[in-house]
Amino acid sequence: MLNQKLKKSFEHLNSFVLSEKLKEKLEKFIVIAAIISFAVHLGIIGLIDFNLLDIGKYDGNLIISPISAIYTPFSIILIYEVYLLVFHLPKSITIYIGKQYEIITLILIRKIFYDLSNLEFSSSWFSIESDIQFTLDLVATIALFFLIFLFYKLNSKNKIEKQKINKKTKSHIKVKNVFATILVPVIVLLALFSFGNWFYETISNSNYSSTSIKTVNTIFFDDFFTVLILIDVLLLLFSFLQTEEFSRVIRNSGFVISTILIKLSFSADNIINTILIVVAVSFGVLILFIYNQYFKLNQKLNY
Fold first, then answer.
1. What's residue 115's pLDDT?
2. Residue 161 confidence (pLDDT)
3. Residue range 204-216, pLDDT digits in tens
4. At residue 163, does pLDDT exceed 80?
5. Cβ neighbours of residue 159 closer than 8 Å, sequence gap 6 or more
6. Cα distance between residue 232 and residue 228, in whole Å
7. What is the largest distance, in Å, between two alpha-carbon atoms of the chain?
8. How far apart are CA 190 and CA 222, in angstroms?
9. Sequence spans of domains, the chain
């Protein structure tokens, strides 16, 4: 009796957190929240410029230019992208991985908006480290956008996703549903802890300006990608129960490696950080391309 109640409660939770209705409501809420946060951030910058607000010792770059205010709504949009990642987990592993690539690209774009407010225009552009980093981030963003396009294009050609659903596939979908349902409250708690801890440390720190943008960029997402690695490894292990195909195992293993590389990028500095992100996404795209070719070859051999 107790098991039936727990099962029913879990099914209700699953149907709620992964419903189209919640997705649509959250989308509207995120848009409104992003607009309001942008207006508030701009308002704070305006009050500081007119000496109507005293911020004490804090002199962070997030409040020195109206351009840096774009950083805040982008952070709100990233929250929605995280939810979309979980939403697509039960439906398609490749789209789930694609959402990871979208999130890390948006984090990079958010960083570019921050750097725009701190550019040093000089005739010796490539002698200033921050300007070199900004140029590299711009190039990397274009490269990532193209790589994500290729990833989804390759996925659309992947006929194996449309195969007949057997018992093993149904079991694997159930497992992914369980992971997705658990992920939602875990992410909410992780976000509350990460932002709460950062806010406390920022307030209690007498030298506010010591908080670097690298530290701000890694809030929540460093831990979030650690959780994703654990989920990806578990999905990889469960995939052995669904299929013994060498190509499928290698593809899923490659996706795990790609996620680990993204996670490692948060620990790297400047140029290495950007290079690791591009390498991670490139690796995932290459893995999917080879997987598709392998699948086509197997189809020809089976005829």
1. 78
2. 47
3. 765 544 445 555 6
4. no
5. 295
6. 6
7. 77
8. 11
9. 17-302
